[in-house]
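Reviewers asked in the last cycle whether our approach scales beyond single polypeptides. To address this, we selected a multi-component target totalling 1384 residues and predicted its structure end to end. The input consisted of the following lines:
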Amino acid sequence: MSEIRVGIIGGTGYTGVELLRILVSHPNVKLTCISSRSEQGRPVHELFPSLRGLVNLNFSAPSSTVFSECDVVFSATPNGVAMEHAPALLDAGIRLIDLAADFRIKDTALWEKWYGMTHACPQLVEEAVYGLPEVYREQIRGAQLVANPGCYPTAVQLGFLPLLENRLVDPGSLIADAKSGISGAGRKAALGTAYAETADSFKAYGVPGHRHLPEIKQGLQSVATDPIDLVFTPHLLPLIRGIHATLYATLLDPSATDLQSVFEHRYADERFVDVMPEGSHPDTRSVRGSNTCRLAIHRPVETNRVVVLAVEDNLVKGAAGQAVQNMNIMFSLDEHTGLTGAALFP
Amino acid sequence: MSEIRVGIIGGTGYTGVELLRILVSHPNVKLTCISSRSEQGRPVHELFPSLRGLVNLNFSAPSSTVFSECDVVFSATPNGVAMEHAPALLDAGIRLIDLAADFRIKDTALWEKWYGMTHACPQLVEEAVYGLPEVYREQIRGAQLVANPGCYPTAVQLGFLPLLENRLVDPGSLIADAKSGISGAGRKAALGTAYAETADSFKAYGVPGHRHLPEIKQGLQSVATDPIDLVFTPHLLPLIRGIHATLYATLLDPSATDLQSVFEHRYADERFVDVMPEGSHPDTRSVRGSNTCRLAIHRPVETNRVVVLAVEDNLVKGAAGQAVQNMNIMFSLDEHTGLTGAALFP
Amino acid sequence: MSEIRVGIIGGTGYTGVELLRILVSHPNVKLTCISSRSEQGRPVHELFPSLRGLVNLNFSAPSSTVFSECDVVFSATPNGVAMEHAPALLDAGIRLIDLAADFRIKDTALWEKWYGMTHACPQLVEEAVYGLPEVYREQIRGAQLVANPGCYPTAVQLGFLPLLENRLVDPGSLIADAKSGISGAGRKAALGTAYAETADSFKAYGVPGHRHLPEIKQGLQSVATDPIDLVFTPHLLPLIRGIHATLYATLLDPSATDLQSVFEHRYADERFVDVMPEGSHPDTRSVRGSNTCRLAIHRPVETNRVVVLAVEDNLVKGAAGQAVQNMNIMFSLDEHTGLTGAALFP
Amino acid sequence: MSEIRVGIIGGTGYTGVELLRILVSHPNVKLTCISSRSEQGRPVHELFPSLRGLVNLNFSAPSSTVFSECDVVFSATPNGVAMEHAPALLDAGIRLIDLAADFRIKDTALWEKWYGMTHACPQLVEEAVYGLPEVYREQIRGAQLVANPGCYPTAVQLGFLPLLENRLVDPGSLIADAKSGISGAGRKAALGTAYAETADSFKAYGVPGHRHLPEIKQGLQSVATDPIDLVFTPHLLPLIRGIHATLYATLLDPSATDLQSVFEHRYADERFVDVMPEGSHPDTRSVRGSNTCRLAIHRPVETNRVVVLAVEDNLVKGAAGQAVQNMNIMFSLDEHTGLTGAALFP
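The resulting structure, written as C-alpha cells, was:
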C-alpha cells in the first residue's frame, strides 16, 4: 500500500489532536494539511507541546483548495461545519470522514430539530455511511463519505446490539445510564467544564433529552422489529477520557442463561470489541488511549433484567480511533493498522 | 437542654472522623470518649491533624466500662462489631446509634446471608429503629437503639419513596444506577482504593448483588403493595465524597404530569431533603459536607419512564450527619442542631 | 454586640460565595446586600445551589446607594473595582474590606506597573491597613479600609516572618516555591483552567514574575534590615482548594538548633496559625474549608538551609476567612467568631 | 537486528506493567518470561486487563533458570531483590537492567545507610553502569549490568547538568523542589496512597532526607569541582503519572544572558530531552506516556538566581522508558525504537 495523504479540518479540538497523536504513528499515513480558522499560520506543536518533534506542520486557513492533495480528509469540527465542506471535497474526489454529527441521522428533519440548524446538503445524508465498522463494515469499504458515530452512541450500540439482534430483550425496556469524561465536552473556554466546577463532583445533564438519543435509537431500531423505547441519561464524570455505559433491558425469557456466549459469538472476529470474562467489571482506564470497547454482561440477583457494562475511550473508539479504523477499511489496510498500542495504565 | 455526653466506638474511620467534625461544632454535645483498638492512647488530633486545637481526647481501648458516663454512643465500626457491644450498652441505659449494618435488616436470616456472619443478638434487631427520619421520625424519638441507614439506601429510598407511596410507578420496574465517591469504601489500606488504581477512571462493582440491595428493598417494600423488583448497580466515582443515584421507574399512568408537586408535598417539612426546581441536575458538590439530600425529577422525552436524580454526601446524610440528626431527634433537640453549615463549594 | 449589617460587592466569584458560606453561619452578621453586575435580580441560591435554604437574597445591581444600610462591605471583585467604590463607601461611613489587590501595595507606582492600570484613589492607599492580623492586628482594629492579603502572600509571609524577625536567615537567599489549587484562578470561563487542561497534570506559571511578588517583598522587607532577594515560583495544582508553600532560606548560623521553638513562640497566641510538631508534613486537606495556616519547620540533611512548609485554604485563610477574621477584629468580636469549623476531611 | 528475547523479574508493579506496555509495541522484542512470586501461574492480562489481546504469557515463579533463554532481563522489583539475582544472570551471560536502586550508588556504605540493608554483591556495584544515556551512553553500550536511574534523579540531573558542566552556578546553592505523581509510590495496598487520603490534597514528604538525595548528589558531583550542597524536597502530587522538578541555583555571574543556548547546545543531539522555547512552562501531561524530559530555563526578575523547570513521566523517562532506551543502546538499535509514541493529551 502506498502512502495515504491525510488532511484534517479543525485540528485544534480534542478529536483533532487525538487524530494527530494516532496518525503520527500510523505507518501508511502522510499528514499533509491541518486547518484551523483561529490558529492559522501557527505551528501545531506550539499549541500542542505533546507533539513537539513529531508534527512539523503549521495550521492552514480552511479553504476549498488547501486539501486538494489529500486522499482523505477528517473533519474534526463542531457540528454544522463539515456539511459546508463536504460537497466540494467529494466533488474533488477526496473522501471525507466527519467526526461531528452532520451526516449521522438519516431523517434530516429529525436532525434539524435536534441540532437546531438547517442542513446544508441533505442530498449527501443518504449517501453517507454510518461509520460503525462492527455493523457497516462492507458499506464503509466503498464509502466516499463516512459519518463517524458519536462517543455515547458507539458504546451504547455495541452493548445493546447482540441482545436486540437475537431478540433476547424487550425493545421497549431499554435504559442507557451513560457517564462520560469531561474531554467529551470539547476543548473550549466554558465555566461548565472548568476544573473547580467539575472536579470532585458528579452530575447528570441533558436528562430530558440529549442529541445522541436519536442517533442511538436509529441504530438500535435498525435491528429491532418492535419499537425501541430508550431512556438515555448522560452524566459528567470527573475524569479526562472515558465513557462507561451501564445498559439495562428486560429479558423476554428470564430463564435465558447463555448471554455470555451470545456476546462472544457476536464479536468473535472484532478486534476492537472485547467481551470480558463473566463477572468482570471493566474500568475506563483499561481502554485509556486505546481503540477497544470492553463489554461485560451481568444478570443481577432477584430480577429478570440484564445489565451490560461498556467502556471505551471517548476520544479513541468514541471518535478519532474509530475514524482511523474507518480510514483503514476504506483504504484496504489491516483494520488495526496504527491502532495496536496498549491502553495507558495506570 | 443540658449537655449530651457522647461516645464513639471506632473513631478512626471516615464515619468516625466525620462524626468528630460535626460534633465539635454541636452546641449541646460534650465529647466524652472515643475508642479505637489500634490507636489506643494516641491523641485523636495526631491521627487527624484537621482536628488539631478542636479535639483534645486520646483514643481509649474499647471496653464495656469506658462509655459508662455517656448518654449516647455512636458505633462507627465495621459490620459485626456493634452487635457485640449493644447488649451491654443498652443494659447500662446508654442509647446506641449504629452506623454499620448490624441492625438494619429485620430478617436476620437474610442479614446473615448477605453479611456472612451469625448475628450476635437477633433479639435486638426487632427493637432497633431504622434511622431514616423522613420515614421513622416518631419511632426514632423514643428509640434506645437506632440502625443508621446505609449511604446508598438513604439516597435511593428518599428518591423512590414518593413515587411508591403514591402508587405512581410499577414496583416491578425499578432501577437504581448509583455512583459513590471512594470514601464510601472506608479508611483502609487496599489496592482497590489506591489513588493510581481509581483516579481518572470509573467502573461498576458488585453488579450481581450488593449488600445494600436487601436494605433498600426492605424499605421500598414497606410502602408498596406489589413486589419490588429492583436492579441496584453501584459504581465507584473518582471523587472523595458524594453519592449520585439515578433512579428509573415505569409510570403506571404515562400521562401523569405533576410529579414535581408530589415530591414537593412529600418533603415540604423536611429540612434535609431539598426538592429542586424542575429541570435541575443536582451535582454532588452542592451537598459536600452538608446533611442535605437534593432531588430532581425528570420525564425524558419519548418514553413512559420517570427519572429521579438524588445526591447526598455519603459521609453526612449517608452516615455521620444522619446519625447526628437521629441523635437530635432522640434528645428532643431541634433536628438541625449542629447540621446547619453550608456545603463546601467549590 | 449587636448585629453587623454586611454587604458584598461582586458575590459571584469564588471568594464571594466563600464569604457567603462563612457568613451564613456567623452569629453576629446580617447579610444585607450582595451585588453583581451580571446576575442582578437573580436569586443567589439559583447560582449557588449549595446555598439553597440558607441565603434568600437576590443579587443587586452595584450602585452607590445599595450598600447604604451596611456597617461593612466586602469587595470580592477583580482587581481595579474596589478602588472605584472605596471613596463613596468610606465617605458614607461604611467600612471596607477589599479582597482584591487595590490597596495592598504602598508604592502606587509599583502597583501600577504590576497591575497595568492607573490607581483611582492613591490617597487611600496610605490609609489602608494591610489585613494580616498576625502582624497588623492593632491597626486593623481601627481601620476604615482593610486591604486583605493575597492568598500566596499570606502563606509565604507567615512562613518566613519568624525567621526574618529573629535575624536567623540571609534575606538575600529566599525562595518560595508555591503551589495553588485551581480555585485561586477565580470562577470564569477560561481554557487554561478547564478540567481537561489541568486535571492529572501540573505546571509552574508566571516564573519570570508574578503580581504577588511585590506584595510579599513589601511584607518581608518591613521586618528585615538587609534587602530581600526572593524567588517566588507559583505552580498550578490539580486540586480545588489549597496552597502549599515550600520556603527555603540559608541560615546565618548553621548551628542554630531551636527553630521550632522560635516559631512556637512567635505564634503562641495566634488562633489561626498552627505550628505543627517537629517532623510534620502538613497536607492541604488538613485546612480544607478552615481558616488555619499550618506550618512545619525542617532542617534537611547535609546543608545549611532551612525549609518551612506552609499550608492554607486559599479561599479561607487566603481570602474570605481572613477577611471575616479582619471584620471580627474591626468590630471587637472574638477573632474566631464564625471561623471555628473543622476542616473537611477527607 | 534479530529479535531480542526479554524477561522481566517482578512484572506486577507499575514499572513492570509499563515495561509490558512499551515492549508489546517494540518491533525487535520477543517477550519471553515474566516472573512474579505472588501471581505465578496467572495470566498477565487477568491482572492487567489493559493488556488483553496483547500479552499472552502467564506469570512464572522467579527462579534461576526461568530466564535462561533471555538475552536481557529487566528487574522491576522492590529495592534489594535485583542484587540477589544479578550474579547468576550475569554468569549465565544474560544482561541485566535493574530499575530499582541496588546498583545506582557507587559508595556501598552510603547505599547501605540510606537503604537500610547489607548489599549482597558489592563487587558488581563498580561494574554497573549508571543508565542515564545523556551522560553515560558509551559505557551503556557495552554494559552487562545497567543501574537504571531513579525517577527524581533523572529529571533533577538533566535539569542541573548543563549549569554545572559549564560552571555557571554555585554548586553550593542548589535546591530541587520536586513533585511526583502517586504512581511513583508503587502498586501496593497502603493507606498513605489511598485515593481518599491523597486526592484533592498536596503535601511534601521526606523533607529531612530522601533516598534519591545521594543518587542525585553523586551524579551532580561528578561534573562539579566544588562540593555540591543540595536541598531536595519531594512532594506528592494528586495525579497518576508525572514529575515536575523546579530547580534553583545561584548564578556565578548574574549578567550571564545566554542560558537558553547553553541548554539547547547541550541537548542538541538528544532525542529524549526537549529544551523548550524561552518563556515556556512545561506541564507534566505534555509527556504523559512518552519518554521525553522537557526543560525550560527562566531568569526571575530582581534576583541572581536561575530556575529550571523539568518534567517527565516518572514511569517512562523516569523508569521503564529509560530502561528500554538503555536496552536499545545495549543492543545497537536506534535509540528511539519502540519509544516514538506521542504523549497522551489531554
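The longest helix of chain C spans residues 151-165. We regard this as preliminary and will revisit it once experimental data from Aim 1 are available.
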